[in-house]
């Protein structure tokens, strides 16, 4: 497969066309941003680690019956995925209080919830990705009712699967963000990326943060934290 013209450059990835109109070539970068790109940096090795970690999670979810855009890992930093049009809705699932939820509701970081909390954010950098509810999604025509129901249900299923997988490896899945997209036939698929950039992972035994909060909060050892996640998933060899 040949890499064609660059379709899109995001904060952490570049997406290229291929000679197959239904497939795109994704390259993971070492660039890191936080707070809607008001904080910028580089984490050496992040592109490689996130490419491998994300490939691993999508493969695992597919084995468990969750359809997604992932097709194959091409190289250390590259993968081939199905081409989809991403819906402008980010779906966040939370098992414990952290980040914006802890701030907004005045909850102590780390308290665990008896049931997961699902939230939707409107993907719009100009508006700083505001929190929206299902009525807002309808108002904005950002997703249909069926798509919304499917996103919520899939997100909760992903939460059950990944929480268990990570727990077995001594890691607590605190929260994470998912994105979904429509393929050419209009079929909704889980897409984008699942990695320490998009999830909060805490080491269960120590509470140590092994995710992008190390970058957001200048905690240091960011690359080692991402590598630790990859090692816990059986890392070292390329998936
Ligand atoms: N998240 C993400 N991209 C975003 C916003 C959030 O991947 O643009 C992830 C984040 O890493 C965390 C979860 O979604 O795992 C919830 O993030 P939160 O709303 O707490 O925002 P934060 O305080 O991290 O900006």
From TrEMBL:
Belongs to the SAICAR synthetase family. The keyword Aminoacyl-tRNA synthetase does not apply. Its EC number is 6.3.2.6. Residues 7-232 form the SAICAR synthetase/ADE2 N-terminal domain. One of its GO terms (molecular function) is ATP binding. It is an enzyme of class 6 (ligase). It catalyses: 5-amino-1-(5-phospho-D-ribosyl)imidazole-4-carboxylate + L-aspartate + ATP = (2S)-2-[5-amino-1-(5-phospho-beta-D-ribosyl)imidazole-4-carboxamido]succinate + ADP + phosphate + 2 H(+). Keywords: ATP-binding, Ligase, Nucleotide-binding, Purine biosynthesis. One of its GO terms (biological process) is 'de novo' IMP biosynthetic process. The keyword Nucleotide-binding applies. This is Phosphoribosylaminoimidazole-succinocarboxamide synthase. Pathway: Purine metabolism; IMP biosynthesis via de novo pathway; 5-amino-1-(5-phospho-D-ribosyl)imidazole-4-carboxamide from 5-amino-1-(5-phospho-D-ribosyl)imidazole-4-carboxylate: step 1/2.
């Amino acid at each position: 497969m040949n890499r064609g013209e660059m379709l899109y450059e995001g904060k952490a990835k570049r997406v290229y066309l291929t000679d197959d109109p239904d497939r795109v070539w994704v390259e993971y970068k070492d660039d890191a941003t936080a707070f809607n790109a008001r904080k910028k940096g580089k984490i050496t090795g992040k592109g490689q680690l996130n490419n491998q970690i994300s490939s691993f999670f999508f493969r695992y979810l597919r084995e468990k019956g969750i359809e997604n855009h992932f097709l194959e890992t091409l190289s250390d930093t590259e993968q081939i995925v199905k081409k989809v049009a991403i819906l402008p809705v980010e779906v966040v699932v939370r098992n414990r209080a952290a980040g914006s939820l802890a701030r907004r509701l005045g909850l102590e970081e780390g308290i665990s919830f008896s049931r997961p909390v699902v939230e939707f954010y409107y993907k719009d950098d100009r508006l700083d990705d505001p929190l929206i509810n299902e009525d807002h999604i309808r108002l904005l025509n950002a997703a249909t009712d069926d798509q919304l129901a499917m996103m919520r249900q899939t997100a909760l299923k992903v939460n059950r699967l990944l929480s268990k997988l990570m727990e077995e490896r001594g890691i607590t899945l605190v929260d994470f963000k998912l994105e979904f997209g429509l393929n050419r036939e209009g079929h909704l698929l889980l897409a984008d990326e699942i990695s320490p950039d998009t999830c909060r992972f805490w080491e269960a035994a120590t509470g140590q943060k092994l995710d992008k909060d190390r970058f957001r909060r200048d905690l240091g050892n960011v690359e080692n934290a991402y590598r630790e996640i990859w090692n816990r998933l059986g890392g070292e060899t390329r998936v």
